[in-house]
Amino acid sequence: MAARMPCPSPALLLTRLLRSRVVRHHHPAAIRVKKNGLATGILTCAAGRRRGNVLSSTKFPPRTIRCCSIVSSPRCRSTEDVLVLGIETSCDDTGAAVVTTDGRILGEAIASQAELLGQWGGVVPKLASEEHRKFIDKVVADALQNAGVQESDLSAVAVTIGPGLSLCLHVGVKKARNIAKAHRLPMVGVHHMEAHALVVRLIEKHVEFPFIVLLVSGGHNLLLLAQNVGQYVQLGTTVDDAIGEAYDKTARLLGLDMKKGGGPALEELAREGDPKAIKFSVPMRGPRYLNCNFSYAGLKNQVRMAIEARNIDGDEVPLSVATAEDRQIRADIAASFQRVAVQHLEDKCRRAVEWARRLAPSVTSLVVSGGVASNHTVRSRLGALASELDLQLVCPPPRLCTDNGVMVAWAGVEHLRLGMFEEPPDQDEPDDVRVDLRPRWQLGEIYEEGQSEARSLKRMGHHQSLTAQVRNRSSEAEGRPASQ
Ligand code: KG4
Ligand code: ZN
């Protein structure tokens, strides 16, 4: 085993840091080396404009100081070689990507489990984690190869630590820690839903905080006010199922080909149907529901009854072998379901905009992300709502709406820029070390008026929310007591 180099003193570290090529290129201002060995600071250009943040650690051997990570703002040119690897394994997609801090996607790779999903009708945690284990090395190697870089060229590793399936999260986190340990890289533990929310800023650089965000995926339906990186107000969530789950269930009952994914298959069939053919009722309307929460379980049930009443058996008769008449009925059900499912999103977004404006009158953007945001009807109907409410609708491109490694790498960049990262794992960390996983992890603090019966709020309460954690860490750094 290689002998560990002694840590340099803070003074020595500072000297080396100031001499390093990248820092010299700018005007380093206020670089501080803390007692715990972390160096943080701000870089400014000649005109005094903020150009980026510095981060490094005395735990790196002195010779690696030239590789200290300089994480800069998107416009900073001198940081082309600052590379962040992102790893995603929270559910059924194994994703990895290498992204630069100025927002270029150098390489990415993904292994989807759609086939398995089609076979089992849903995600089976044990099987999903086995698939992640089978593909993780290849996916990371492919992402690096596509990027034309090696592990040793990386500056940091970001990995999803929650929410998600623990067996699956574990695979990604172990892989990330091994790479970070081998190359002494800082790490960022990413909140999966924050990654969905932030990825839009990689593509649409004009999206600034605060913005309203609707996250629609297989497991979550969230309405948030994004105030900053790591700072969210939760305006609403689902009290039972998420919209993606309702799409998947409906697709299965209608006998669609799940290999394409339930949502995309249903969207395709709905194009052939009449959205007004069946009168499903829109969930949570009326004076009892003056909140921003969602419920899709009732709609799912209405759809199931409509399907049964028409003697459709998707298991026995898949769509591919249905008669023309049967196909038309299924298309009408799909279109009618989609109309009401999206209407529910519109209703709640309308109220969320009102609430968000009370907290942040300057909001100008409604961001919609997560797997279901790749749906064309969702995009066009929410686009119309946004323009009626004088907001701009911003969605990531469809391939970045569904789970992927790019969004995790980018969330890592956003955290690194603000100095929010962890030390590399200890060199002597045992392979079976217990890692920090957060299968149930709330993203934001709940808006007072949004406090409700939401079951998922209780379910998600096992860990302190990301927002509370970030706030408490910054209080501690400033010597103020952390709040609960
Ligand atoms: O964000 P995501 O990839 O994974 C989770 O974090 O859950 O979202 C997956 C969900 C699935 O339920 C899938 O059916 C749905 O997003 N989805 C769609 C579409 N594409 C994916 N739903 C409706 N229309 C689509 N085009
Ligand atoms: Zn997701």
Automatic annotation (TrEMBL):
This is Glycoprotease 1. Its main location: mitochondrion. Residues 105-410 form the Gcp-like domain. Residues 452-484 are annotated as: Disordered. Homodimer. The keyword Acyltransferase applies. Keywords: Acyltransferase, Metal-binding, Mitochondrion, Transferase, Transit peptide, tRNA processing. Binds 1 divalent metal cation per subunit. Belongs to the KAE1 / TsaD family. Pfam families: TsaD.
